[in-house]
């Protein structure tokens, strides 16, 4: 839904169950309280956000479509029919293909980051990278979304794993995903866990695949897009 404006849509909503939203907000409250304790700017604003979240949790309600709502189109996808990973191909987040359709393409750089990731993605990447013997054949960028994630991953030993394989650990935050900070090499072939791969966003002339942290880790180890059997 965060890409709705880029598709000239006035807005977008997604029907969700309350349970994952509640879990997310509780973790967000922990993060915001930690930010306040660490002296982040404008603690009053952060405290107001915490209060709003806590108030919603007392009576959680989510938007739902009207029972008589009319739609221009209804597209149904049976998740049981998806037997292999799906990537978004260079350079359009709408160009989604099965892994088998793009397998074995050479990869120069891999980015595991963006605000759409969570600490679990970095743990999964770390466990996969721990199986790598020696230095990676690719340039791997690691950029957790928050300092709290960075500190926890360091305590759990994952940053040592990243360093052992030669990954470049960025300051927590946007990094490559922002498009105006760090950049990949010109014309690089890239796998990224971000949600955008528009032309020249991550680097001049770069071809960027969007994929999961697990698939990105395998690509970093192999130096190419894996096959379904390898993923």
Write the layout of secondary structure elements.
Blueprint: H1 18-37, H2 43-58, E1 86-88, E2 96-98, H3 99-102, E3 109-113, H4 119-129, E4 139-143, H5 147-155, H6 158-164, E5 168-169, E6 189-192, E7 207-210, H7 213-222
Helix pairs in contact: 1-2, 4-6, 4-7
- Helix/strand order: HHEEHEHEHHEEEH
- Please give the alpha-carbon distance between the first and last residues: 27 Å
Rough outline: globular
Q: Supply the helix-strand structural class.
A: alpha/beta
- Radius of gyration, rounded? 19 Å
Provide the low-confidence segments as ranges: none
- As laid out across the biggest beta sheet, the strand order is 5-4-3-6-7
Give the helix proportion (percent range).
25-40%
Number of helices: 7
Q: Work out the strand percent.
A: 5-15%
Detailed description of the structure:
By secondary structure, the chain is of the alpha/beta class. The protein is 33% helix and 11% strand. The protein has seven helices and seven strands. Strands 5-4-3-6-7 form a five-stranded parallel β-sheet, with helices on one face. Strand 3, helix 4 (119-129) and strand 4 form a beta-alpha-beta unit. Helix 4 crosses helix 6 (158-164) and helix 4 (119-129) runs parallel beside helix 7 (213-222). The chain starts with 17 loop residues before the first helix and ends in a 9-residue tail after the last helix.
